Amino acid sequence: xxxxxxxxxxxxxxxxxxxxxxxxxxxxxxxxxxxxxxxxxxxxxxxxxxxxxxxxxxxxxxxxxxxxxxxxxxxxxxxxxxxxxxxxxxxxxxxxxxxxxxxxxxxxxxxxxx
Amino acid sequence: xxxxxxxxxxxxxxxxxxxxxxxxxxxxxxxxxxxxxxxxxxxxxxxxxxxxxxxxxxxxxxxxxxxxxxxxxxxxxxxxxxxxxxxxxxxxxxxxxxxxxxxxxxxxxxxxxx
Lengths: 114, 114
What we know:
The structure holds 2 protein chains of 2 kinds.
Chain A: E1 4-7, E2 10-14, E3 19-25, E4 32-38, E5 44-51, E6 56-59, E7 62-67, E8 72-77, E9 86-92, E10 103-104, E11 108-113
Parallel strand pairs in A: 2-11
Antiparallel strand pairs in A: 1-3, 3-8, 4-5, 4-9, 6-7, 7-8, 9-10, 9-11
Chain B: E1 4-7, E2 10-13, E3 19-25, E4 31-37, E5 43-50, E6 53-57, E7 64-70, E8 73-78, E9 87-94, E10 104-105, E11 109-113
Parallel strand pairs in B: 2-11
Antiparallel strand pairs in B: 1-3, 3-8, 4-5, 4-9, 5-6, 7-8, 9-10, 9-11
């Protein structure tokens, strides 16, 4: 089955700086890579996703890049703000297969230092 | 209007007891899930149902039994609770059975077994 590794497990950055979280996956057939954000005591929520037919996707201050050859993808947050403090999860799956599950990474606790 | 709602939010119970967590979604989604998040924040799928049919059943002790009376409801019953069952249990839903769809999580049910 799919295995997703996520690094770093914790990350502290100064407010206004950029943050990068990296994930690798094992199954070359995986084609869907979402990122979920979980604030303290809250539910995980999708913030951005990318499919294997594109290499990069941006949404305001967040962007995700995908390298299919190397089987890794990354989340980039620019101009970080205190509200970006949360646990971020990457995930991977083979989309459009009914019995395929989304495999989550182990999470990165991001702390923005004011 | 809560999209995915689960009850109870907090549950403290003794070892050996049986407990249930209820979940309902009003998004009109076809697929519902139960995820377990342990103390290290690892997020693991337990079960997935599509239109009341079980499609994913991870390696979960058979003390855990999901029930889906209709596609808007997915309940989780746990027999003979053990200390290791203490975790946050998230119900979730998505449109379609494929894993390439956005997953909407409920608020979580904090289960503590003493």
